Input
Amino acid sequence: MNTIQLRTEIPGPKSKALAERRNTAVPRGLSHGTPVYVAKAQDAWLEDVDGNRYIDFAGGIGCLNVGHRREPVIKAIREQLHDFLHTCVQVTPYENYIRLAERMNEVTPGKFPKKTLFVNSGAEAIENAVKIARAHTGRSGIIAFEDAFHGRTMMTLALTSKTHPYKAGFAPFPGDVYRIPYAYCYRCSYSLKYPSCDLFCARHLEDTFKRVVASEDVAAVIAEPVLGEGGFVVPPPDFFRVLIDICRKHGVLFIADEVQSGFGRTGKLFASEHYGIEPDILVTAKSLGGGLPLAAITGRAEIMDAPGPGGLGGTFAGNPLSCAAALAVLDIFQRENLLSRANEIGDRFQKRAKAWQKRWPIVGDVRGLGGMQAIELVKSSDKREPAADETKEVTRYCYEHGLITITAGSYSNVIRVLVPLVVTDEQMDEALDVLESALQMVSETKGAVATTVT
Output
């Protein structure tokens, strides 16, 4: 039986009524990717207030790798609610915060002593990672990448690359932030080709230390092992090793932002493992909490201890409900085959998407790692001109036909896959059928010539 069930036009009358209320009660800056309002969710599907059921390719923007409302997570939350809801860890601490920190210190890359701090969100975690790096090194400079996204707070906006809608109108931002190109091979900043380029983009860091900011003034380089909002860009396998070697040479820390790429999304618990790297500080959030707000900063013990007592914290940071949920998430990954499932999802997507790429010129690039997959849409495959308007049409067609998708990319022309890893093969095929129909519709509207796939 199909998961997708549509009972009304999309959006339905109840969703439309809620949209009218939202317009008078909520600021316009909080935008929505779809016009439907959710009523319930389970595993890999959502149902809206009008009774329409969708397959969820967004996963709360990567927060639900273990699935919506997984019973072990719900059970852990219920048990914690029975004891207490909130005390503030800085006043009267609790055991599950410590236990979760111990687990994070064990599962993150690197066999060295580590310590972990918990906060509420990915942006808050990045803010604290920067604070800790500056405290440890006595330096202020931070180097980030083009196409990066690290959050919407003022410090993380300084690190984030995309201007509209994230940065426009909010300046000035905190200083001492410098930006270099990422290994975005499909749109190489230097018009080079890998591997003949010899990873010029990574080695450019040395040039940055000579021409832009002195290495002795730089506390850390921060990077996403796979770009998230920047378009699910996967760098070459040796990109980070070259980059980190340069950092080590100059006493610069490396911070891995695994807010979106972490917790099984790429087929390993952390994407850093694909590259054989051991970040000095690793930041996680999103799926760590299984649907509840939680983020972690895990790093080398001597680095994490740099701020003095009271220098780190937050009223709700590492709240007991979220810690309980995260412990259940770690148990799920330990018991189940979700890492293998992420790779199966990626293979299934790649097979279909590569066929689309051969058939329709609008599909310019297909890329991803494990269950973190995307297609980049272009107006022409030779010039690679971003097809932002067509991407909007595809996403609209998808939700009108029972598939929730979200876009990404500095040019807003990437459709990404963040489906919960518990999705079934049948649901995956059903969702990909909708996406294929959407691409066909847009391609035919554009007048693109389809080629036969054999």
Remarks:
- DSSP finds 14 helices and 15 strands in the chain.
